[in-house]
Write a structure and sequence with these properties.
Blueprint lengths: L1 H4 L1 H4 L27 H10 L2 H5 L21 H19 L3 H10 L8 H11 L8 H12 L17 H6 L26 H7 L11 H24 L11 H15 L6 H12 L12 H30 L15 H19 L2 H24 L9 H6 L3 H14 L2 H11 L1
Length: about 425
């Protein structure tokens, strides 16, 4: 194939850090337009996918029904675009192919169902008979099977048919359920049993033990940076957080408790988390009040830029200190994020958790969402293929057994936007 043969055109070959195997596709196909690299094609395929567009209808943290005049809160799509910008720049600084990292960042949330992590928990219960549900495993399923783009041998869809390197970079948890290398009880995993063939193919050159490629590590850190910084920004815009609250001892104690329980490494003490937050509060650019004026908006935007630069530069310096100045790609290095930097990121996640996600109205909303998705799954299970989109109806009818049919129903629900889930629920129930 053209994209694997020429180091100048394809980004592969001796001295580039990417070999022919990295640019292979699950199903070989000719290049439609010479001059693009294999990885540029990957980025374009993700960017033009329907799955990416659907993220515009999936809530990130703050519900999108903001009053006129407020900045529009982020959706899963805008988060993915911002993550991709951070990842592309950070990856390029290390000598990664920027198109691989950008494509992985754009793809990292594709498998999220309606209503985010709340919906993920419902679908995991629904899908228990067919192996469970995990958004990261669903992302691989979309990229390699469900997203209509290329049909391979035997007329079977192979999804976007991305290269091995890009699929690997988009795989945040490269192990099946229960296969975490150090924590078998971890709920995080990246592949369902019936997607193991393509998973084994994309991981064929990976070292043992569940090691992630370097580009995947850059994607993961870019995701962390994007959502901890922008969730804070959205919380301030929506009026859910007053900067002065971060000086209140009771508020701080709750934030540190949440950070220690949900985000920080095990055994992290409150004093260490307090030091992390205080380092941020001491910066000249930290927003000390927010009233929605143009000056306050500009200062807040500067603070988000400062935070992103702080977190990325810290990781870049620490990684370079360990691995040197050369290009860092695939399995040749590991991203190094200093503990102090990780804790600063973790404490910001906890700030958004306490002030945005734990609001009483949000818990009432999540309760309604769980009931809606549970009822929708029951209705589709009882009446399918009625209610299934044209893409999923034939898959349901061709499924070999009850587990396979249930997986199609779960695939259908996971593909819905928040609004589409409500509309389908109203129609079927």
């Amino acid at each position: 194939m053209r994209e694997t043969a020429d180091a100048r055109e394809g980004g592969t070959g001796p001295g580039t850090g990417y070999g022919a195997a990295d640019a292979e596709r699950w199903d070989p196909e000719p290049d439609k337009r010479p001059g693009r690299t294999a990885f540029q094609r990957d980025r374009a395929r993700v960017q033009h996918s329907a799955a990416l567009r659907r993220l515009a209808g999936k809530t990130q943290v703050v519900a999108p029904e903001a009053p006129v005049g407020e900045a529009a809160p982020r959706t899963r799509l805008t988060h993915s675009l911002e993550c991709a910008q951070i990842g592309r720049d950070l990856g390029a600084a290390f000598g990664c192919d920027p198109d691989i990292v950008e494509a992985a960042c754009l793809a990292h949330d594709l498998g999220h169902p309606p209503f985010g992590h709340n919906g993920e928990r419902v679908l995991d219960r629904v899908a228990e008979p067919c192996g469970g549900f995990e958004a990261n495993a669903q992302s691989l399923r979309l990229l390699s099977r469900l997203e209509p783009k290329h049909f391979g041998r035997g007329g079977r869809s192979v999804g976007l048919n991305l290269t091995r390197a890009t699929l690997d970079a988009a795989t945040k948890y490269p192990w099946p359920r229960g296969g975490h290398p150090t924590d078998p009880g971890s709920p995080k995993y990246g592949v369902y049993p019936d997607d193991l063939p393509v998973f084994s193919w994309l991981r064929q050159d990976a070292p043992p033990g569940g090691a992630r490629c370097f580009e995947s590590q850059v994607m993961d850190w870019s995701d962390d940076v994007a959502y901890c910084v922008h969730d804070l920004e959205d919380g301030l815009h929506a009026g859910h957080l007053a900067p002065a609250a971060l000086a209140s001892p009771p508020e701080r104690a709750e934030i540190f408790a949440v950070a220690a329980r949900r985000y920080a490494p095990p055994g992290t003490e409150a004093d260490e988390l307090a030091a992390a937050l205080d380092r941020l509060l001491a910066q000249d650019w930290w927003p000390r009040h927010f009233d929605g004026t143009a000056l306050a908006l500009a200062r807040l935007k500067d603070a988000t830029s400062q935070l992103i630069g702080r977190f990325c530069l810290s990781a870049e310096r620490a990684t370079r200190a360990r691995h040197g100045p050369g290009p860092l790609r695939r399995y040749a290095a590991g991203l190094v994020v200093p503990r102090e930097t990780r804790l600063e990121c973790d404490v910001l996640k906890a700030v958004a958790d306490v002030h945005v996600m734990q609001r009483p109205d949000q818990e009432r909303l999540r309760t309604r969402q769980r009931a809606l998705l549970t009822e929708l799954a029951e209705a589709l299970t009882a009446r399918a293929p009625e209610g299934l989109d044209a893409q999923f109806g034939p898959l349901f009818e061709a499924a070999e057994d009850e587990a396979a049919r249930l997986r199609v129903i779960v695939d259908q629900i996971a593909a819905l936007t928040d609004g589409a889930a409500r509309a389908l629920h109203a129609r079927l129930t």
